[in-house]
Amino acid sequence: MAEIVRNGNEVLIKTGARIDTINAGDFEREINPVITESGVNVVFDCSELDYISSSGLRVILKAQKMVTANKGEMKLTGVKPQIKKVFDMTGFSRFLKIN
User: Fold this and answer.
1) What are the C-alpha distances in Å from 47 to residues 60, 61, 81, 83, 89?
2) Which of 4, 28, 38, 55 has the maximal Cβ count within 10 Å?
């Protein structure tokens, strides 16, 4: 599901169209090797993301915690207005770097 492109210590992760209850576990397993690396900078490309469920939010939250704990940085790009609204309503916008 996730497309992962590595460029040195920066990793681009394309989320795809949905992160929901059905695929959140698979998505998390795919990105886990990347987010647990030391000093990695993770960019989630959310340009195709149309829907995120609470399960998807949990994966994003866990990724943020893991990347930060391992002295890396994480940001989200290409976030559509309806997804940004979900991040705003849940309070995620306060700690996620979204541009």
Assistant:
1) 15, 19, 11, 10, 20
2) 28
Give CA–CA dist 38/57, Å, rounded.
23
- Amino acid identity of 89? M
When computed from its CA atoms, the radius of gyration of the chain, rounded to whole angstroms, is 12
Q: Record the tokens describing residue 12, joined without a space.
A: 């681009």
pTM: 0.94
* Digit-coded pLDDT (tens) for 20-46: 999 999 999 999 999 999 999 999 999
**Cα–Cα distance for residue pair 48/79, rounded to 1 Å:** 8
Q: CA of 56: how far to CAs of 7, 14, 32, 60, 76, in Å?
A: 25, 14, 14, 6, 14
Task: Please write the tens of the pLDDT for every residue from 51-97.
Answer: 999 999 999 999 999 999 999 999 999 999 999 999 999 999 999 99
- Kindly give the residue spans of alpha helices, DSSP state H, lying in the chain: 24-35, 54-69, 81-90
